[in-house]
Amino acid sequence: MAEKSHGTPAKGTGAHTEADGGHGGGFPPFESSTFASQLVSLVIAFVALYVIVSRIALPRVESVIDARQNAIEGDLSAAQKFKDESDAALRAYETELASARTRAQAIGNETREKLNAAAEAERKTLEDQLTAKLADAEKQIAATRETAMSNVRGIAADAAGAIVQRLTGVLPDSKAVSKAVDASLKG
Amino acid sequence: MKIDPIHQFNIEPLFTIGHIGNHTIAFTNSSLYMFLAVAVISILMIGGMAGRQLVPGRLQSIAEISYEFVASTIRSTAGAEGMKFFPLIFSLFMFICISNLIGIIPYTFTVSSHIIVTAALALLVFFTVLIYGLYKNGLKFFKLFVPHGVPIYILPLVMFIEILSFFLRPVSHSVRLFANMLAGHIALKVFAGFVAMLGVSLGAIGWVGGVLPLALTVALTALELLVAFLQAYVFAILTCIYLNDAIHPGH
């Protein structure tokens, strides 16, 4: 432990330095001869640490933490904006859907009414036509019957005259025959 | 085999730097570990933050956690104004914490096991409080010694106690750290020494019996890890509390 004599003053004036001459001679933390060296080292080390910490390290950490905070806040506000946008889009979609639905209903109603009216009109004209045709047909039937009836009278008179001639051998008076036919037809 | 638990605290000069008056200033093993601590802190805080990642990695996490830890300690004890002293308190905390943690590694030296180091740090805090307190508050700073709501007839006694406790702060501040580190390392060394001593003196039985002190040494090392951090934290938080007196003296 020869090098431990570093604490011994160069001029040999300190009495207290005798105690720390050898190993185990004293309690190291109380050996005042080592204090100066430790203090000088501590001052240099601590000042260096303080400068490094205050000038470089802490501002750097702070800027990184700030940047992260800003990024998180920015992301959150962007997400909020997107959410608002999607909400607005959803609302617009819903109102659009509702109005489209009412419009579709109106168009449907209108079309139905128009079609109903058209069908009604067509039915009416058709009915009218049919009624007219029916009347015509009835008239024709009546006319045909009339003609047919008059033909029947002539044929019946002829037949009656012929029958009377065959039976009696006498040609009957045509007027009397037609009178008798008429009476028979009426009866 | 002789147990010498004091040997680990020896200051060994490595080379001489110069002379101040009668004192030889040497670069000692203590100096080496002081600068080692400063280097470790610089690597952690600057190297760790070099990536500047948004999602921090391991080293950056440690750097950020230390930052946040010290910052929240200051804010909770000394308020937002205490952040003026953030670099000082951060330096103190990290210096003590890292040098203590390095000191737990076997064969290393613990810087804060020397009263001169802890006293210097405590006096630095003491004078910072005194000078800043007087600079900021002027004579109102002395209201610190006159608590509110104390009856006038016991006021002198209370003031005497307050002043005494104020001036004893650096003593308790430094001795707490110094004594904790010193006692812890002596205890560790003694128990670790038992293992070897038992083995050498009793042979095979001794080696088996040595399991007990070995287990104790392991447990003590864990405890010392806690103490290393805790004492740094206590030193930092007391610094905050003392600075709070300087910032807000009329508590």
Structure description:
The complex is a heterodimer of chains A (187) and B (251). By secondary structure, chain A is an all-alpha fold. Chain A has a domain at 147-186. Chain A has helices at 35-168, 174-186. The longest helix of chain A has 134 residues, at 35-168. The N and C termini of chain A lie far apart (177 Å). In chain A, 14% of the residues are buried. With 251 residues, chain B is mainly α. Chain B has one domain. In chain B, 69% of the residues lie in helices and 6% in strands. Chain B contains 6 helices and 2 strands; from the N terminus they run ββαααααα. Chain B has helices at 29-47, 58-78, 86-104, 115-137, 155-209, 211-247; strands at 13-20, 23-28. Chain B has a two-stranded antiparallel ribbon with strand order 1-2. The interface between A and B is large, with 48 and 56 residues.
Ends of chain B: how far apart? 57 Å
The overall pLDDT of chain A, averaged over residues, is 83
- Amino- and carboxy-terminal Cα gap of chain A: 177 Å
Helix and strand element order of chain B: EEHHHHHH
Question: How would you describe the shape of chain A?
Answer: rod-shaped
Q: What's the helix count of chain A? A: 2
- Computed CA radius of gyration of chain A, to the nearest angstrom: 70 Å
What can be said about the biggest beta sheet of chain B? 2 strands, antiparallel
Task: Indicate the structural class of chain A.
Answer: mainly alpha
The number of strands of chain B is 2
Count of helix runs of chain B = 6
Average pLDDT of chain B, to the nearest integer?
Answer: 89
State the secondary-structure class of chain B.
mainly alpha
InterPro entries (chain A): ATP_synth_b/b'su_bac/chlpt, ATP_synthase_B_chain
Membrane topology (chain A): Single-pass membrane protein
Protein name (chain A): ATP synthase subunit b
Keywords (chain A): ATP synthesis, Cell inner membrane, Cell membrane, CF(0), Coiled coil, Hydrogen ion transport, Ion transport, Membrane, Transmembrane, Transmembrane helix, Transport
